[in-house]
Design a protein that fits this description.
Strand content: 15-25%
Structural class: alpha+beta
Largest sheet: 6 strands, antiparallel
Strand order of the largest sheet: 1-2-3-6-5-4
Oligomer: single chain
Order of helices and strands: EEEHEEEHHHH
Distance between the termini: 64 Å
Number of strands: 6
Number of helices: 5
Helix content: 25-40%
Number of domains: 2
Shape: elongated
């Protein structure tokens, strides 16, 4: 199998974790994880690990290869790209075979916050729906902040929270209009 990125060098078999065999690009350190190998490994894990909150510092930037289209080392077909979300700044690719491509360092980032044991869930509709919702909320907040300014935006959102369960919510909204 050849790497889907860089100079397309031959992938080298490695043991990514005890019991999890994968293939690594010697040029970029990207990792190909076959679907069956990952599912076997994850099913052998005693329990899912609790997530660790993101660090206060900004997340690592995506790799230089993140925006490039990638072709599956097994099937040669174009892989689909999925946002990881959860304050990870990168995306991962998945093949029609179920195999997963991670650019160099992405496995380590996932592992550092205990997301590596649920990589298979990242491709699910609930996970991706939650990520789309988060991005929409982020975009909406950014647009309102740009329009209203930080101070007014913060005061309005605080008032919205106060009125959420207030017994005279409708009257308060009528007063504002």
């Amino acid at each position: 199998m050849k790497s889907p990125i860089g100079k397309h060098q031959r992938l080298v078999r490695i043991e990514l974790e005890p019991g999890l065999h994968a293939y690594q690009c010697p040029e970029t350190n990207g990792v190909w994880i076959g679907a069956q190998a990952y599912l076997r490994w994850v099913s052998a894990q005693p329990a899912r690990l609790e997530h660790i909150a993101p660090p206060d510092s900004p997340h690592c930037p995506p790799s230089e290869f993140d925006p490039l289209p990638k072709f599956c080392p097994e099937s040669g077909t174009l892989m689909a790209t999925f946002a990881v979300g959860h304050d990870f700044g990168f995306r991962v690719e998945r093949s029609i075979t179920g195999g997963i491509w991670l650019d160099g360092g992405e496995w380590e980032q996932l592992k550092s916050r205990n997301y590596h044991d649920e990589l298979h869930l990242l491709f699910s509709e609930p996970w991706q729906r939650a990520e789309r919702k988060r991005r929409l909320e982020e975009t909406t907040e950014s647009a309102f902040r740009a329009k209203l300014g930080d101070d007014l935006y913060d005061r309005v959102t605080q008032l919205r929270e106060e009125l959420e369960d207030h017994p005279f919510r409708d009257e308060a909204i009528a007063l504002l209009c």
